[in-house]
């Protein structure tokens, strides 16, 4: 009897315990379920919150700005654009544009401001060769008038396609704008510099000469607080995407070797290190050549602890940090080449040099087309490319669109000269902005494999020029100018590079090599002229666009 009672009692206790347990679980779960429910409808809250943050910060909120930028700065890799925090594209795109539009209804005026502002400001010191160069008439040619088809962003037309644009202007009402502009009139001045750089891009150039925005952007790259860091996926070597306080972004390439180290002779160009100083020097060289086809790059000394490890949300990157036996901070990240303890990037003791290249506009806003370089190298250790075995290869190229018309072939020649001067063999692809079709410049992206050897001139880089014997007259004249003793490319480069925080960027032998290579380019061209005649070799692109001091004003030839 007692036993039965005891058993019943035990069963009872067990039941009570079970009930208590399930009650606990229910109570625990309920709030979570509720919270879940509320995030589901948070979308309806955001629009009313946005104007507030807009008013406080002075520019559109994080998400809409982010979409204006591009996460992939390299041909054929748009992987990273998707791996990073992204919001639905269509909605944000139109919002970003609406905000742009709202700030300055007069897109044309804005554009003019950005292009003209430099004329008055930023007069360099007297006695500098660089300012003498930029004062030369060859550096004063003007662009044809720009229409909406010639600018990357024409804010107003894009708005017209959005029926909601008009009513939505109400949410960012006048009051907010008045807060930071008493007149209610906002100029492009209030945009962050990276955005002003994007708005200035047109069919003919990434940025205009003497543009004060570019100098300001270079300063931003070197000084703005870094708010987050992510690894760029898809590359062979480690690169970091850095986001700044003002939502600007840049591609960081860390220093991997000293400036004195030359590429080992047995290295294939495609396994060569990417050099941070080459990225910086390439930007300056491209500007001195007056191409203006390299996005702005600045050097920066980065605190690896504070500005990389502590701000990254990427666990994989974070985990690769360690302290070396010499007590330096090191990390190696993840990539397909050189990302291991043996190839770690180490600071001194916690500072590392690197290049920061400003991002181009996001691919969602400004698509780019990737083209194979007709003179691309065979990336096979034994196989040769067609151009290496066929001396008449250029004839074939000239008959193939888009090289059969327009300026594309001449652009390839410009790029060839640019690459030869810095010894860059790694130009397998190039990119253009899709909006401009085939009649636009080539973007000179990714120059980290230049300036590897100063004691060797790689003549194979010049093959497109020797095979085609074509050049723009403006390029030819500028090259002749830069070869003169009173200008001298190496001295101009040295003067330009002093402005970078990591100066000296190039050791003297690399500067001297550029003078030597420039003479070689001019020799190739004079041989061409002797063989084929001046009018065949030199394409006159200056007719009618000699600047304002030239009376003649005929149609531009392309
Ligand atoms: C970029 O991504 C899009 C969409 O994911 C894809 O269709 C396209 O082929 C990619 N482009 C390149 C060059 O990888
Ligand atoms: C780098 O940042 C760390 C952490 O904030 C700080 O302790 C260190 O002093 C900084 N290093 C230099 C050289 O400024
Ligand atoms: C641009 O070039 C491509 C060749 O890659 C060609 O198919 C296309 O028709 C060209 N477009 C124009 C407008 O000429």
From TrEMBL:
ATP binds at residues 237, 253, 274, 357-360, 431, 446. Its cofactor is Mn(2+). GO terms for molecular function: ATP binding; metal ion binding; protein serine/threonine kinase activity. One of its GO terms (cellular component) is Golgi apparatus. Keywords: ATP-binding, Disulfide bond, Glycoprotein, Golgi apparatus, Manganese, Membrane, Metal-binding, Nucleotide-binding, Transmembrane, Transmembrane helix. It comes from the Eukaryota. Residues 38-58 are annotated as: Disordered. Pfam families: Fam20C (PF06702). The chain crosses the membrane at residues 12-31. GO terms for biological process: enamel mineralization. Residues 321-537 form the FAM20 C-terminal domain. Mn(2+) binds at residues 274, 446. Belongs to the FAM20 family. This is FAM20C golgi associated secretory pathway kinase. The lineage of its organism: Eukaryota, Metazoa, Chordata, Craniata, Vertebrata. The gene is FAM20C.
């Amino acid at each position: 009897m007692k036993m039965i009672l005891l058993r019943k009692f035990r069963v009872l206790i067990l039941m009570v315990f079970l009930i208590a347990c399930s009650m606990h679980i229910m109570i625990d779960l309920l709030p979570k379920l509720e919270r879940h429910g509320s995030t589901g409808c948070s979308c309806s809250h955001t629009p009313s919150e946005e104007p507030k943050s807009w008013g406080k910060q002075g520019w559109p909120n994080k998400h809409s700005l982010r979409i204006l930028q591009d996460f992939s700065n390299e041909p054929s890799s748009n992987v990273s654009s998707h791996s990073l925090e992204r919001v639905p594209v269509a909605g944000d795109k139109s919002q970003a544009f609406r905000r742009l539009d709202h700030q300055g209804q007069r897109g044309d005026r804005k554009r003019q401001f950005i292009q003209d502002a430099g004329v008055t400001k930023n007069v360099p010191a007297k006695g500098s060769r660089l300012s003498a160069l930029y004062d030369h008439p060859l550096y004063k040619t003007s662009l044809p008038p720009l229409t909406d088809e010639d600018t990357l962003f024409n804010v107003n037309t894009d708005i017209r396609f959005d029926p909601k644009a008009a009513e939505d202007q109400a949410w960012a009402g006048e009051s907010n704008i008045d807060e930071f502009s008493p007149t209610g009139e906002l100029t492009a001045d209030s945009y962050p510099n990276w955005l002003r750089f994007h708005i200035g891009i047109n069919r003919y150039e990434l940025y205009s000469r003497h543009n004060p925005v570019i100098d300001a952007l270079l300063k931003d790259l070197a000084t703005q607080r870094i708010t987050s860091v992510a690894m760029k996926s898809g590359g062979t070597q480690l690169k970091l995407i850095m986001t700044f306080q003002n939502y600007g972004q840049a591609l960081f390439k860390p220093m991997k070797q000293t400036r004195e180290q030359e590429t080992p002779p047995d290295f294939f160009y495609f396994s060569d290190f990417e050099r941070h100083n080459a990225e910086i020097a390439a930007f300056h060289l491209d500007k001195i050549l007056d191409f203006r086809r390299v996005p702005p790059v600045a050097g920066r000394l980065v605190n690896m602890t504070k500005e990389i490890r502590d701000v990254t949300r990427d666990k994989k990157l974070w985990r690769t940090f360690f302290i070396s036996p010499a007590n330096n901070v090191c990390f190696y990240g993840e990539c397909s080449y050189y990302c291991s303890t043996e190839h770690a990037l180490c600071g001194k003791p916690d500072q590392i040099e690197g290049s920061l290249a400003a991002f181009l506009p996001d691919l969602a806003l400004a698509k780019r087309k990737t083209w194979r370089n007709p003179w691309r190298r065979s990336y096979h250790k034994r196989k040769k490319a067609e151009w290496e075995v066929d001396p008449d290869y250029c004839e074939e190229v000239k008959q193939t669109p888009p090289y059969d018309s327009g300026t594309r072939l001449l652009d390839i020649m410009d790029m060839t000269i640019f690459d030869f001067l810095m010894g860059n063999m790694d130009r397998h692809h190039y990119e253009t902005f899709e909006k401009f079709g085939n009649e636009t410049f080539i973007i000179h992206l990714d120059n980290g494999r230049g300036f590897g050897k100063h004691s060797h001139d790689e003549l194979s880089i010049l093959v497109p020029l020797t095979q085609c014997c074509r050049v723009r007259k403006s390029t030819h004249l500028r090259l002749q100018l830069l070869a003169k003793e009173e200008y001298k490319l190496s001295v101009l480069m040295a003067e330009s590079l002093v402005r970078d925080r990591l100066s000296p960027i190039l050791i003297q032998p690399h500067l001297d090599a550029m003078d030597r290579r420039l003479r070689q380019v001019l020799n190739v061209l004079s041989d061409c002229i002797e063989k084929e005649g001046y009018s065949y070799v030199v394409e006159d692109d200056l007719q009618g666009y000699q600047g304002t001091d030239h009376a003649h004003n005929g149609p531009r030839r392309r």
